[in-house]
Amino acid sequence: MTASTLSSAATDVGFSREKNEDAFYANDEIGLFVVADGIGGAPRGEIASALAVSAMVDFAAMGRPAGVGLDVFVRDAVMAAHQRVFAANAESPDSLAMGTTVCAVVVSGRHFAFAGVGDSRCYLYYCSGGRKLLKQISRDDTVATVLLDKGLPASLVRRSDRSTLTQAIGLRVPAGPHVASGLMEPGDALVLCTDGITDYMPDDAFRELIFSYAGDPDVLVREMIRRALASGGYDNCTCICVLAK
User: Fold this and answer.
1) Is the pLDDT of residue 117 over 90?
2) φ and ψ at 117, to 5 degrees?
3) Domains recognised in the chain with CATH numbers
4) Helix, strand, or coil here: 21?
5) For 185-208, what is the HEC assignment?
6) pTM for this one?
């Protein structure tokens, strides 16, 4: 079966971290795309993110059972990632628990489904009908999101609130992955990235990069990494672009 997408992915350790705690997977043939960001400041973040991604790859390799929707399948894959990291924590009770974010997409034909836990993001870029639109389809699991939902003005939200997670993979049972699904027409794209990209780039610059380069995933992910590094490279940065053919 011919893949319905063309993807590209890139990651960089940045200038401030000794190791890269991000992990990713992008495979057009099976239609699975994942970014994971090991929790900064916690131990073994690079192990947590790698375990989460490998668990999702293993889950996808079993195939989607007949009658199971893409949204259920990707949600269950994220929960499989949680179970693997959680089990690894249980095997090392004397060590501080490790955790990670997960942002995942599965694609089948023109259909896609997203599931995520944490603050790694997924955006959907539309270019159908001659208009370019960009929509964040993930939801940040952060203290800032909770405060904004309660009506606190954005100007009063502290930077630390934006980076403090309210749920993560591996630490305890998540309240539940956020799930979304939809259709992509040729030329539309999904962009998955860790906060090493989005935290250090103004929203308008981020949007302009996608509007300019979404049609060439190799160029887009390279430019995303370059801009993140040019802004200081304070964190690991990872980006995947999935273009509908």
Assistant:
1) yes
2) -135, 130
3) 5-233 (3.60.40.10)
4) coil
5) CCCCEEEEECHHHHCCCCHHHHHH
6) 0.95
